[in-house]
Amino acid sequence: MKGTLALLLLIFLGSVLLQLVLPWWSVVLLCLAGAAWWRVSAGEAFLAGLLGTGLSWWLPAAWLNTHGAGLLAARLATLLPLGGQPWLLVAVSGLLLGLVGGLAALSGALLRRAVKPAVVPTNQSARNPG
Question: What is the three-class DSSP state of 41?
């Protein structure tokens, strides 16, 4: 759990900083590399990627929606099938980026497992006794 929280903070802070200067998809590389480097399970990596990237997108979008960009979000929400609800647009966009980050982190954790599988001790090997 401690490693998951550290990975979540790394992904969140890295995503915030990367999105200032790079395109939105740069968080995929961060999540993939972070989960491959950090030793967490696949489920924990997905959760850290989902929450880290989702919050890094959702918090600024929610702040902008309440502080002046709500009109633009409302117009975008009318173009999409969201019924003109700007908060629904904020929630859906945060969820989509969260899923992208979660799947990238899951891929990184599974890549680590594929490249360096767990070592089985010799006394517990899968020999056929008999």
Answer: coil
Q: Rounded to an integer, what distance in angstroms lies between the CA atom of residue 58 and that of residue 51?
A: 10
Q: Where are the alpha helices (DSSP H) in the chain?
A: 2-21, 26-37, 42-66, 70-79, 86-115
The C-alpha atoms of residue 122 and residue 108 are separated, in whole angstroms, by 28
- The closest of 63, 64, 61 to 97, measured between CA atoms, is 61
Pick the closest to residue 52 from 16, 22, 12, 83 (CA basis). 12
Of 53, 50, 61, 48, the closest CA to residue 91 belongs to: 61
Which structure tokens are listed for 53?
């990237």
| pLDDT tens for the 130 residues of the chain, in order | 788 899 999 999 999 999 899 998 999 999 999 999 988 999 999 999 999 999 999 998 888 888 877 777 787 888 888 888 888 888 898 999 999 999 999 999 999 989 887 776 776 555 555 4
Collapsing DSSP to helix, strand or coil, 82 comes out as coil
pTM for the model stands at 0.81
